[in-house]
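Weekly structure sync, notes
Attendees: PL, DS, HV (note-taker this week)

Item 1: Histidinol-phosphatase
DS walked through the input record. Source organism listed as Pseudodonghicola flavimaris. Sequence as pasted into the shared doc:
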Amino acid sequence: MTDPRFPDPRTLSDIDVAHRLADAAREVILPHFRRADLTADNKDADGFDPVTVADRAAEERMRTLLAQYRPEDGILGEEFGPTAGQSGRTWVLDPIDGTRGFLCGTPTWGVLIALSGAAGPTLGIIDQPYTGERFIGSPEGALLRTAAGDRPLRTRSTATLEEALLFTTFPEVGTPEERAGFEAVSARARLTRYGMDCYAYALLAAGHIDLVIEAGLNPYDVQGPIAVIEAAGGVVTDWQGGRADQGGRLVAAANPTLHAAALEILSRV
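Item 1 (cont.): predicted structure, written out as C-alpha cells:
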C-alpha cells in the first residue's frame, strides 16, 4: 500500500501538485516574516531589487518537489532561472512576489505558482501565507481557500472607468511614456492605489477592485495571476490586447467592457 505521506507521483493531479508546492513554500517562508534580523541581498546594481534567504529556500523546496512529482516538466523560477523539460509544460515560480513588502512586514506579497503550456498558463495560485489566503484558478474555475473553507471567486461587473478602482505597484509604473498611459487611465478612475504587489491581482479576482495596470514585468510575475483572474471571469492582456504571459506591459480588468475602455487609452502608448 502506498504511504499517504509519499503518494505515487502518477496519482497526483496538477492542482494537487500546485497545492503541495504552495504548502511547502508557506512552511519555508513564514518563519522569516517580520523577523527583526531579516536581511536581503541586492540583485540590481543600479537600484534595489532585494532577495532574501526565504525567497531562495522556498524556490529550492518547490523545485525539489517538482523533481519528485513532475520530473518531465520544465521549471522557470525567479531566483534560479529556467530548467528544461521534455513535456512541453513549464511550472512558473515566484517564491516571494513583493520581496520589498516582505522586508517591510506588509502582507501584500505572495507565492506565485503557474503551470503553463504553449497557449499560456492553465493553472495558477496566488498564496498569501501570513493571512492564510490561497487564490486558485484552473479550468474548473476560481476559488479562495482559507481555514474557514472554500468559496468561489468572481470578478466585478463595473462597466465604466469612472466607477473603477485601479491598482498598480510602483507609482512610476515604467518608462515616462508608460507612466503617461497609466495616468491617462488613472485620471478617469474613481480611485487609484499603489504598492500592493501580487495581492492586487488577488483582490481583482475576488471582486474587490476593477483594474491592475503595470509594466516591466517578467513571466514569473504574471502567469499565476493571469490564470486566477481569467478563471474568475476577468481579462488579462498586454497594452495592445495581445498575450501578456511573457511579461512586459499588463492590463488586468474585471470584465471585457472595462478592459476595452482601458485598452482604448493604453494602446496609444
